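Structural biology now treats backbone shape like a language. To illustrate, our science desk offers a sequence and the tokens encoding its fold:
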Amino acid sequence: MNISVLVDYVLIALVGGVGSILANRGIAVFNDGLRPIMPEYLEGKIDRKELAATSFAVSFGLIIGFGIPVSIGSTILVAHSILLAADIIGTWTPANKWGTALAGVVGAVYGVGLLFGLSFIVSAFKMLPVNFLGALSLLGGPILLAFCAFPALAVASQHGAKKGMITFGATFVAYLLATKFGVFSVGNGIKITLNPIGMSLLVAMLFMLYFAAQIKGEGTSNASLVNVFSARVSRIKKNWIWLSIMGGLITAASSVLIIAVDVLPQQLLVKGQVMEAAIATLARAIGFIPLVFSTAIVTGVYGMAGTTIIFAIGLLLKGNPIVAFIAGFVWMWIEVQALAGTAKGLDKFPGLRDMGEHIRTSLTDTIAIALLIGAALACNKMAPNLGYFWVIGVWLLNKKLKKPLVDMAVGPIAAIALGILLNLLRIVHLF
């Protein structure tokens, strides 16, 4: 095992281990849906069993249905596959010093097993009668450009369809112009190439920020939250060392390209487009600042990856895990210290404060439809014509289930299920 591979395994073990410890001690969790439940446990309103059951219910489906399926076929893990698991491991282990130690060990073992297991799966795919790994690579194809549409959708949701269409049109034009005129010669044979996806996303984000910034006010909602929940803000600040260590570890893991915050940056990294992945990561993080800060103030429990800006910092420091760890450590400390001030500052720009909710909804809708289209392309490559039938049928039938899978999970699961089914059919000579 060479040194770079060893570093990968050590980092992923530390991310899984420390993340599980944070969840075990109620310092931080990754799932935004679990964070509001944590105070109920910390204040004795629910017991540990109820907390563990809730953690499992809100996270397991995303791990199995989204995080791991999207990570298969790549050595770059989607954060959901490990950080959501850390939530579960941390809440399922006892709330004492032995339970904390156990959470750290189990989380570390899970992280190593996840990274090794995905590599093993890739090798195993090559031995199958029908190797569908190549087809699975099409899953993320539509995401790269479709992602650029989410700001227009967010603008339409927040400011109306007209402004959404203006943003969409500007995004479309930016892509065309960057494609046609995005190569510049600066002399001595040196050329600078503007990435069309990155430029169109940048233009879309600028429009989204411009429209949101036009809504001004002197509200005091966040300021009031800070005053009412000052003890919970203090609790987060008291745990700054643990949060900073986690921030450093995630940043270092991001810098060596073993973990990405979401599927779009992951797909860009697979294609070697690191700067574009950093821009996409930063764009995503902007939408999560109001949510992370507001829920942190109310609950006294921070986000395991903070505002997720640390993922972008890691990408900008690619290949320098030690420097990345220090930068992530410092940045997470800054986030924690700025928690109250930033939340109060957002009151002056309620449009920016409210923008986060629209961004998150738009991101989810965009990724879900892009993964569905990608799954259709992947399945059709595995089994021409039959593949479209399979994906459409699975998508529609999922809607009829009493407990349907989240939309983002349907496409990847349908593609993997078809690949397995085709191998079984090959064995009995039906395919």
